[in-house]
Amino acid sequence: MDGTLVDTEPYWIDTEYEMARTYGGEWTKDDALTLVGNDLLQSGRYIKQRMGLPHTPEEVVELLLDGVCARIDADVPWRPGARELLEDLRAHQVPCALVTMSYQRFVAPILAHLRAETFTVIVTGDQVRNGKPHPEPYQTAAAALGLEPSRCLAIEDSNTGAKSAESAGCTVLVVENHVPVLPGERRVFRPTLAGLGATDLPELLPPR
Q: Which of 11, 50, 59, 102 is 20 to 30 A removed from 205 (C-alpha atoms)?
């Protein structure tokens, strides 16, 4: 979701810098980009250590979510072509799963802007034991859809997310955003989702 359907990475980065200013910690752009696509609790551990915060990683995550959710309430920054693709997939009755390492409290206000039936399955970071880049999130989503991962196309914008989907056995449509993504055997690159429809996506999957 984050960076692929909506471009909220600037919201996370702004919140991280705000936390550094509030608590007198060190933070850089490289630090921020290191966390793109990560499991939130892993990010909480990194921020705690890097900024020298007295909070637990769980408390750091809640502070992050407080800042980002406040910004989301003011504006949802959709990525080009994302909503249109979701609408076309729904019209073609293609089952879709949302696989995000964000927590439910962050996901809910964004999903409120979409039709309720847009996603058949939703897997959030607080529902899995192992977050991205581990394959568990995509394995969980594919199983809930009743599909083999090899018949699923994942859409990702980060190395962390692409590795998770690829390791699970999915083909990955990579649309880079804030960080460059390395090439891979099961990775297909496109500059944008704009102009892509349901009938275009099967061409990206390997033959049966």
A: 102
The conformational region for residue 169 under phi > 0 = left, psi -120 to 50 = alpha, else beta, is left
pTM of the model: 0.81
**What contacts 24+ positions apart, CB below 8 Å, involve 175-182?**
175/4, 175/79, 177/3, 177/4, 177/7, 177/9, 177/79, 178/3, 178/9, 178/33, 178/36, 179/33, 179/36, 179/37, 181/156, 181/157
Domain 9-74 class in CATH = mainly alpha
Q: Quick one: 82-204 is in which CATH superfamily? A: HAD superfamily/HAD-like (3.40.50.1000)
**Per-domain residue ranges of the chain:** 9-74, 82-204
